[in-house]
Amino acid sequence: MTALTLSTAAAPGLRADAIVIGVAKGSNGPSVAPGAEAVDKAYDGRLAGVLETLGASGAEGEVTKLPAPSGFKAPVVVAVGLGAEPDKDAGFDGEALRRAAGAAARALAGAKKAAFALPLAEAADAGAVAEGVLLGAYAFDAYKESAKETKGAKGAKGNGKAPLAEAALLGGKPRDKAYKAAIERAAAVSEELNRARDLVNTPPNDLDPEAFAAVAQTAAKEHGIKVQVLDEKALTKGGYGGILGVGAGSASGPRLVKLSYTSPKAKKSLAFVGKGITYDSGGISLKPAGHNETMKCDMAGAAAVFAAVVAAARLGLEVNVTGWLALAENMPSGSATRPGDVLRMYSGKTVEVLNTDAEGRLVLADALWAASQEKPDAIIDVATLTGAMMLALGSRTYGVMANDDAFRSAVYEAAEEVGEPAWPMPMPEHLRKGLDSATADMANMGERMGGGLVAGLFLREFVGEGIAWAHLDIAGPAFNEGAPFGYTPKGGTGTAVRTLVRVAELAAAGELG
């Protein structure tokens, strides 16, 4: 991961491959953002005009490179757009800084060192820039020979470029405890989020449920987290019919992984539950052509939960956090669950499977009931659950449902605070009747219209009484099939990790709803 430092050095004398500055979009053209005063002075105060001549406007994510002024030890200035200029006396918000830093870090792939002269009015700004750099510099190249060659030496053959190696945050305060804490938090959260991205991007032939469980066990041992893995035998003995039913058609057996981080000072407990379908073919209800290629990402919810628990441990949060990873591979075969089969879930309820491609709710149902038995203060599940949610909210926003309005608001506000676009969704009671089954206690499918909401209603049936619960349907933003933007790469995004960590921080501080 990119190395981070806080620096009080002046931009002109700093040895680096580039100096990164911020540019805002003003009413009269681009304006140079705070933090770049020394750079602007070296251009005789005309940097904004020079950038405008080069076509820069200050729009969010816009990157403009130009030669550094005479006397600078860095050869290049990289101007990155921050978006709209804030009102007078108001600073840039954290997400604007995060996205700008991410765009610049991506543009500087292959560089050894860059100095970021972006606005740092307070420690939180330093944390936002640090996150943007670390997330923007991410690259998944484990399967590329060209990347291995490029990492050898400068000028090596190959099309790949190594991520930015080092970033110095100018204007930071290395001896200030708040600044140091902000950087350390950014590093811990970003490193674990990038680990989640790696898991989502890993091909399913190398990441089946057993392999995912092994990754979790290794990380748990490293960070003092208690781990328990239930294999097929244990799942059968325990009566986890949902997880077993989904994994029945695969040669790779399912797993339920429990990760437990405990703090001796904790007053609250949280349970995070993640859907971990390591590959989703749709099962017997096979997905149509064109819908299979990205289904390695169907374990993004479990990856987010895993990363959040490890991040909570690394940050030493004063809250108990348990992560439940419901892992299975959904495949068609002679042993696969069929439409019309009835599964007896871990809760004892029976579910008629009308569509085997509505499998995520089945594994989550067992994990939610298992989490409920420990009576945590709150449960949050995370899942790439429904295409209906993508139709409703698009590819960059996830839906938030809950059994408690205040808790839903708290989770939504946490998501907004950390820069993860989310939207509160209702749970209309009239849709529940569509889940009724003439054969079993309920069916795994209901009305087609409002399918994302129906899925939430199904999950609610498996949450213990009196426990606050929220459901995050991250089907849209979990995997970016388009071009990179801001600090978001192509492929796995790590969506929901930062929301979960923020919720854990709020719970530790006694401020969660």
TrEMBL record:
Q: What is its EC number?
A: 3.4.11.1, 3.4.11.10
The UniProt record gives the binding positions of Mn(2+) 2 as 275, 280, 298, 359
Q: Which residues bind Mn(2+) 1?
A: 280, 357, 359
- What keywords does the record list, in alphabetical order? Aminopeptidase, Cytoplasm, Hydrolase, Manganese, Metal-binding, Protease
Q: Which Pfam families does the record cross-reference, listed alphabetically? A: Peptidase_M17, Peptidase_M17_N
**Catalytic activity as recorded in UniProt:** Release of an N-terminal amino acid, Xaa-|-Yaa-, in which Xaa is preferably Leu, but may be other amino acids including Pro although not Arg or Lys, and Yaa may be Pro. Amino acid amides and methyl esters are also readily hydrolyzed, but rates on arylamides are exceedingly low; Release of an N-terminal amino acid, preferentially leucine, but not glutamic or aspartic acids
Q: Which InterPro entries match?
A: Leucine_aapep/pepB, Macro_dom-like, Peptidase_M17_C, Peptidase_M17_leu_NH2_pept, Peptidase_M17_N
SUPFAM superfamilies attached to this UniProt entry? Macro domain-like, Zn-dependent exopeptidases
Which subcellular locations apply to this protein? Cytoplasm
Q: Can you tell me which residues form the catalytic site?
A: 287, 361
Record's cofactor remark: Binds 2 manganese ions per subunit.
Domain of life according to the entry: Bacteria
Name the enzyme's class.
Answer: hydrolase
Q: Which GO terms describe its molecular function?
A: aminopeptidase activity
Domain Cytosol aminopeptidase intervals: 355-362
What are its cofactors? Mn(2+)
Q: Report the sequence similarity comment from the record.
A: Belongs to the peptidase M17 family.
Q: What does this protein do?
A: Presumably involved in the processing and regular turnover of intracellular proteins. Catalyzes the removal of unsubstituted N-terminal amino acids from various peptides.
Write down what this protein is called: Probable cytosol aminopeptidase
Q: Which organism is it from?
A: Streptomyces ardesiacus
Report the gene name. pepA
